[in-house]
Design the sequence.
């Protein structure tokens, strides 16, 4: 019994350390707007069209991304990855992104203004 408790305690400690390391690694990711330029093509097809609405799975007004807060964009993409946000197209796209991709996209869109190409309005 003592061996089992020791092993459980060791695994618990390992899990806590592993979670802390993953959180630290995610916190260390810095966005690079220039690096996102090869990923934005999958975004601008919907998020850069004035008054665009999707029709699947329901009618939904697609928001502009340009000028949004970087932390908001990161949070939203992570929520799609985890399934906390349900739009199937966004879940698939977010699922294909790494933490670095997400940080890069957030940096790219947060630096845009209303005058930026592919961001006709905010």
Sequence:
């Amino acid at each position: 019994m003592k061996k089992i408790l020791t092993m459980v305690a060791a695994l618990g400690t390992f899990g806590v350390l592993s979670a802390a390391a993953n959180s630290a690694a995610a916190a260390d990711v810095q966005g690079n707007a220039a690096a996102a330029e090869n990923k934005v093509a999958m975004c601008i097809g919907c998020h850069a069209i004035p008054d665009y609405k999707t029709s699947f799975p329901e009618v939904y007004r697609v928001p502009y991304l340009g000028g949004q807060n970087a932390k908001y964009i990161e949070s939203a993409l992570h929520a799609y990855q985890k399934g906390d946000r349900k739009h199937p197209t966004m879940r698939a796209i977010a699922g294909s992104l790494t933490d670095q991709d997400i940080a890069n996209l957030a940096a790219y869109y947060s630096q845009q203004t209303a005058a930026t190409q592919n961001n006709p309005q905010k």
Observations:
- Residues 58 and 68 are 24 Å apart (CA to CA).
